[in-house]
Write a structure and sequence with these properties.
formyl-coa transferase, domain 3, 16 helices, alpha/beta, 404 residues, 6-stranded parallel sheet, 2 domains, Rossmann fold, 3-stranded antiparallel sheet
């Protein structure tokens, strides 16, 4: 189940996570070559299998898995095991010695009653890297609460900073907290794996959506901590750079991102406007202070030409800019196509699925799409035979009792 030159070849992940943050992290590990064993509830599976429409129809045109599930579960094997039943939990525990990493995103303390909490697992495999992803972390007054991306975008401050100044606070269109939490989890897992390989010592990783959301405030959080002033929503403008915003063109819109004074001078030349020597606009600090006047001076000129014409004109003078593409335009973009950003995979039932490729590029151990998102439980028998030596009699008995 590993590539000869996979970066994580020989590493096995026991994946007890579902929805997005956990599966996103384990998909990245799988893309890098780890053997990911995804444990799901028989008959139901990961919640996101039903989070649609749209759904991928199977080869007979019947209702299949949702796009939401497909986006985060490539390069995994699916085992349908009911670990709410003692025999199912014991099967999962028998898998533990074969794994170097365990990822779960149950509520704090939720796996203890099944004997699948860190203390229980560490007794079986002391060197395991056990990553817990929760809404609020393993301690603190909110530790017992469930957490979803949307509510954490709100509680963590991101929504207060997103949207038009006079409009309501807005969430991101994609679940950015879940996705970044998944990536923070991968970073922590790889660091802990390095430590475990060097010392033999495993550890518990406590990754929370709220912690990650607060970290994502980045420069805006730092600005508040420095100044004590509450940032306000600026819509499509930037709190610390100008002009760094959307402008209307003759046939649509364009984003202009001026990062320094030299770029601003080139921008003014392309516009045919003598703004660069105006004291109100001569430095970025001045432009931010007088952003209203700056926008008023630029907007009429920008509206006189089409988006495509402005892209050509501004790129010619090294001014960063870009059109606001719809998704059809994104996937038709020649750069996106050249970079191989979309891959096609064939599932076990013969259904073809198109997915976003892993964006990591490595000269020796490049991520590889080895396995399409699995059907629910498609690998149960083969994986249990391979990993814990289950035979046909074991499998039949477990199936008869609803364990698998």
């Amino acid at each position: 189940m590993t590539q000869p030159k996979a970066a994580l070849g020989g590493i096995r992940v026991l994946d007890l996570s579902r929805v997005l943050a956990g599966p996103w992290s384990t998909q990245i590990l799988g893309d890098l070559g780890a053997d990911v064993i995804k444990v799901e509830k028989p008959g139901a599976g990961d919640d996101t299998r039903a989070w649609g429409p749209p759904f991928l129809p199977d080869t007979d045109g019947r209702h299949g898995d949702a796009a939401y599930y497909l986006c985060a579960n490539r390069n995994k094997r699916s085992l349908a095991i009911d670990f709410a039943k003692p025999e199912g939990a014991e099967i999962v525990r028998r898998l533990v010695p074969q794994c170097q990493i365990l990822v779960e995103n149950f509520k704090t303390g939720g796996l203890k009653k099944y004997g699948l909490d860190y203390a229980s697992i560490a007794k079986i495999n002391p060197s395991i890297v056990y990553c817990s992803i929760t809404g609020f972390g393993q301690d603190g007054p909110y530790a017992h609460r469930p957490g979803y991306d949307y509510m954490i975008q709100a509680m963590g401050g991101l929504m207060s900073l997103t949207g038009e100044p006079a409009g309501e606070p807005m969430k991101s269109a994609v679940a950015v907290v879940d996705l970044f939490t998944g990536m923070y989890a991968v970073t922590a897992i790889l660091a802990a794996l390095r430590h475990a390989e060097r010392t033999g010592e495993g550890q518990r990783l406590d990754i929370s959506l709220l912690d990650c959301s607060v970290a994502l405030l980045a420069n805006l959080g730092a600005s508040y901590l420095l100044s004590g002033e509450k940032p306000t929503r600026l819509g499509n403008q930037h709190a610390a750079i100008a002009p760094y915003q959307v402008f209307a063109t003759a046939d649509g819109h364009i984003v202009v991102t001026i990062g320094n004074d030299g770029q601003f001078r080139h921008f003014c030349t392309a516009l045919g406007l003598a703004l660069a020597d105006d004291p109100r606009f001569a430095s970025n600090e001045a432009r931010v202070t007088h952003r209203g006047d700056l926008t008023a001076a630029i907007a009429p000129a920008m509206s006189a030409r089409t988006t495509a014409a402005w892209v050509l004109a501004l790129e010619a003078v090294d001014v960063p800019c870009g059109p606001i593409n719809t998704l059809p335009e994104v996937y038709a973009d020649p750069q996106v196509i050249a970079r191989g950003a979309v891959e096609s995979m064939m599932r076990a039932d013969g259904a073809e699925v198109k997915l976003a490729a892993n964006p990591i590029r490595m000269s020796v151990t490049d991520p590889e799409p080895r396995l399409p998102p699995p059907l629910l439980g498609q690998d149960t028998e083969s994986a249990l035979a391979d990993l814990i030596g289950a035979n046909a009699v074991d499998i039949a008995a477990w199936r008869a009792r609803g364990i698998i």
